[in-house]
Amino acid sequence: MDAVRVENLVKEYGPIKALRGISFRIAPQILFAFLGPNGAGKTTTIRILSGLTRPTAGRAFFFDVDVFGEPVKAKRLAGLVPQTINLDLELTLYENLLIHGLLFGLSQREIRRRAEELLTFADLLPRKNHKVRTLSGGMRRRLLIIRALLHQPKILFLDEPTVGLDPHIRRRLWGLIKRIQQRGTTIFLTTHYIEEAEFLADRVAFIDRGQIVIEDTPKALIARLGEFAVDVVKEEGLETKYFRNREEAEKFALELSGQSQTITIRRVNLEDAFVYFTGRKV
Domain ABC transporter: where (predicted)? Predict the structure, then answer.
């Protein structure tokens, strides 16, 4: 049984087609990354699957629960971490978790137990009774994530969870996200940080202009291009060529070495695959 199954999802805003009939499946306990430039349809997809926006057409299922036919049941299976930090800054960390738990019908005893566990899990327990406005940006993101986990969802939607954070804080959040997955949660991640998806994801889908261009594992997408890349800086811009091994890359670079061009040999990465398959930068 798929954790998430999406069939021909369409979303139109008047003449604008935000989603053009996308379909995909996510197996349980997989971290699935949705990559694309701004406006590609990433957030629209999450908003539809989390019940915040109605689709124009299409179907979606969480463990065979019809997302649009049984929305309340579906919402209990999923947790959402939005791009915008929508915590109540004048309440404490615990009070923010308490309100979320009550909205999902949990008893106060259960909320206390889960809150203690999750605050410990996210290294936030010493801040339990502090107001959220006293937290750093990284701490607020961690609180946002564990709030979405309070009702024990089987699926977690993360919409640009590390946007605007410093690199070292982002990497700390990567560790938290992987630990959540290891506990058995299926994760749907949108991001425009390519290295984030390359590090975290089991499978990746590239979306552009409301359509899924290609889907595979990060390793397989990279392997379609080759192992090494040669970047050549020309007057008209940067040109990149891909090769199966370093020997081929070095041979090509040597042939150009007398032409007064800046040449770099490096390993192929997921950003190369994205640019190659979509023709666009993230």
Answer: 4-234
Q: 210 φ, ψ to 5°?
A: 80, 10
The domain segmentation of the chain, as residue ranges, is 4-219, 222-278
Q: Which residues of 179-205 are buried (b: 16+ CB within 10 A; e: fewer)?
A: ebbeeebbbbbbbbbbebbbebbebbb
Query: How does pLDDT run across 91-132, given as a tens digit for each residue?
Result: 999 999 999 999 999 999 999 999 999 999 999 999 999 999
Distance, in Å, from the CA atom of 25 to the CA atom of 4, rounded to the nearest integer, reads: 6
pLDDT at 185: 98
pLDDT tens across 203-220, in order? 999 999 999 999 999 999
Asked if 206 and 214 touch (Cβ cutoff 8 Å), the reply is yes
Residue 123 CA to residue 221 CA, distance in Å, equals: 35
Fold of 4-219: Rossmann fold (3.40.50)
